[in-house]
């Protein structure tokens, strides 16, 4: 039982006032003001006719953004990892084989989820910081004949964008394998064409290039993938993420399954409306132009990118940490001095790179100049061999050009 003294202590908790950060890390990105306004609108019930209409609109907007005609396209109730688990946990059946990449942190997460689903995991090898080689994928497919092939389109841990997607999917389909793509850091930020590229299942997160708070996460499945889900002999291990049950809520019947995160659905609807208003190809071009200015600035000041130009990921810029510099101290100083968030490396690249996002509403000229200015200032103060002035000048020239 709560005592009077406990009650007084609870009443001492102040009103929530988070710091006003500029979010230029690997996610979340800054949320667009229109998305924040949408989240403040009144709730309705999750089976209210008006909300059902909103659900239909969100599905259409997701199809546009994924570049797909897939009927089964929904926002999963949860973060991007929930969409990832829904994809893998429903498509991979116990005893089946899934081929996963080793070239980044999130390929490892694919492997972990496939094992938890009862699958047998085999790997196609590539070093961290490099994309998958189509020939290596073809060799692994021939050797293991997997039921499912997964790859990461935009690897957040390395700053690498996977080219040759159609080549990978065609090789997988030659072996009758379904293809699952991690598009968390690519959707709405870099070119992504689910249908044209032959991707069977794609999952994503809303908090990166869509500039939407996490909570309702994009997922799309082809008819072939959904047929496999609905014909499973054994139920998926997750009831909450069982797509055969969610079909009843997001399909034609709109039958109760769970209480949807209504405010998050409002948010992703508005975020996707912004995508449609800008135009998806214009949005891809904006990210490339602004991230290109960021890249020009960090290179001009004397820093190196982790990924070669041909694999550079505009939405997540992996920058090598200069010799003798502690990346954690730099990130902490940027947060303290500039209210600016960038991130350190993960896994094999822990301590070796900064991860600087250029995503969604954060991908604006003033933010790009700000992050180059702040990073150069902090690195120079810590004794790194950099020229911040040259970096800022290069950034501005790239933006003007």
* Helix content class: 40-55%
Number of domains: 2
CATH fold assignment of the largest domain: Aspartate Aminotransferase, domain 2
* Order of adjacent strands in the largest pleated sheet: 2-10-9-8-5-3-4
Family: Belongs to the class-V pyridoxal-phosphate-dependent aminotransferase family.
Biased composition (Basic and acidic residues): 1-11
Region (Disordered): 1-28
Keywords: Aminotransferase, Pyridoxal phosphate, Transferase
Describe the protein:
By secondary structure, the protein is an alpha/beta fold. The chain has two domains: 33-277, Aspartate Aminotransferase, domain 2; 279-400, Aspartate Aminotransferase, domain 1, CATH 3.90.1150.10. The protein contains 14 helices and 14 strands. The protein has helices at residues 4-11, 33-39, 49-66, 80-91, 105-116, 134-144, 165-174, 223-230, 243-250, 262-278, 280-300, 327-338, 365-381, 388-400; strands spanning 22-23, 72-78, 97-101, 120-124, 148-152, 154-155, 160-161, 178-182, 201-203, 215-221, 316-320, 340-341, 343-344, 353-357. The strands form four sheets. Strands 2-10-9-8-5-3-4 form a seven-stranded mixed sheet, with helices on both faces. Strands 11-14-13 form a three-stranded antiparallel sheet, with helices on one face. It is globular. The mean pLDDT is 96.
């Amino acid at each position: 039982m709560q005592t009077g003294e406990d009650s007084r202590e609870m009443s001492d908790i102040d009103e929530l006032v988070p710091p006003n950060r500029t979010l230029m890390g690997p996610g979340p990105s800054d949320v667009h003001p229109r998305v924040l306004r949408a989240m403040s609108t009144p709730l309705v019930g999750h089976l209210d006719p008006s909300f059902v209409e909103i659900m239909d609109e969100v599905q259409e907007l997701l199809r546009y953004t994924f570049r797909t005609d897939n009927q089964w396209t929904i926002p999963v109730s949860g973060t991007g990892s929930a969409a990832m688990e829904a994809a893998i946990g429903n498509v991979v059946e116990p005893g089946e084989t899934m081929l996963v990449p080793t070239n980044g942190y999130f390929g490892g997460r694919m492997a972990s989820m496939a094992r938890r689903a009862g699958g047998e995991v085999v790997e196609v090898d590539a070093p961290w910081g490099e994309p998958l080689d189509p020939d290596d994928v073809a060799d692994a497919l021939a050797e293991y004949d997997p039921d499912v092939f997964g790859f990461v389109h935009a690897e957040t841990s390395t700053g690498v964008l996977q080219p040759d997607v159609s080549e990978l999917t065609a090789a997988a389909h030659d072996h009758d394998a379904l293809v699952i793509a991690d598009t968390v850091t690519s959707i709405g930020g870099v070119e992504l064409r689910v249908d044209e590229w032959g991707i069977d299942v794609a999952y994503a997160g809303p908090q990166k290039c869509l500039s939407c708070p996490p909570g309702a996460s994009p997922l799309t499945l082809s008819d072939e993938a959904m047929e496999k889900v609905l014909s499973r002999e054994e139920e998926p291990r997750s009831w909450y993420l069982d797509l055969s049950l969610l079909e009843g809520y997001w399909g034609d019947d709109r039958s109760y399954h769970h209480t949807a995160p209504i405010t998050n659905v409002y948010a992703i609807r508005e975020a996707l409306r912004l995508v449609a208003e800008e135009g998806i190809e214009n949005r891809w071009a904006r990210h490339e132009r602004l991230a290109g200015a960021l890249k020009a600035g960090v290179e001009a000041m004397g820093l190196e990118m982790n990924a070669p130009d041909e694999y550079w990921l505009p939405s997540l810029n992996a920058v090598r940490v200069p010799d003798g510099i502690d990346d954690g101290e730099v990130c902490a100083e940027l947060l303290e001095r500039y209210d600016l968030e960038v991130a350190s490396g993960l896994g094999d690249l822990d301590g070796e790179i900064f991860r600087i996002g250029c995503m969604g509403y954060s991908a604006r000229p003033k933010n790009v100049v700000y992050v180059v200015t702040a990073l150069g200032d902090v690195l120079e103060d810590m004794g790194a061999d950099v020229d911040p002035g040259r970096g800022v000048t290069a950034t501005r020239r790239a933006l003007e050009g």
